[in-house]
Design a protein that fits this description.
The protein is built from two helices and eight strands. It has helices at residues 80-83, 89-92, and strands at residues 3-10, 13-20, 23-31, 41-50, 55-59, 66-69, 98-105, 114-116.
């Protein structure tokens, strides 16, 4: 299998395409006017833990705190399946904890970004 990455850079736009065996698999377009933060890594600090939502809000240095759900919190034990379900988020995180997170979804309107502590490097 042959794989190629084609990149085109213009003054206001960057485009990348992934080809496998000459067939287009993925296209990425980043415009200067709509540059997002999806994929960015941040060292965040937990500001609030909400056990009723099984979530936490994390300060990553943006205008609004970002949202981290328990399903997106990395656990060395193998995750929820190994424990018979998701544990209480208060056992994993507490206010003031620092953790490395990656943005999964850009902030939108009054909502902050969606985070994950499962880090991937495309």
């Amino acid at each position: 299998m042959s794989a190629e990455i084609l990149v085109n850079v213009a003054p206001r736009e960057l485009r990348a395409a992934v080809l496998e065996n000459g067939v287009l698999q993925e296209v990425y377009i980043e415009r200067e006017s709509r540059r997002g933060i999806v994929g960015n890594l941040y060292q965040g600090r937990v500001t609030r833990v909400l056990p009723g939502m099984q979530a936490a809000f994390v300060d990553i240095g943006l205008e609004r705190t970002a949202f981290l759900h328990i399903d997106d919190v990395w656990r060395p034990s193998g995750g929820a399946a190994a424990e018979g379900g998701a544990p209480d988020i208060r056992r994993l995180l507490s206010a003031g904890d620092e953790l490395l997170v990656q943005v999964q979804k850009d902030p939108l309107g009054a909502k902050g970004a969606r985070l994950s502590s499962y880090i991937s490097l495309p």
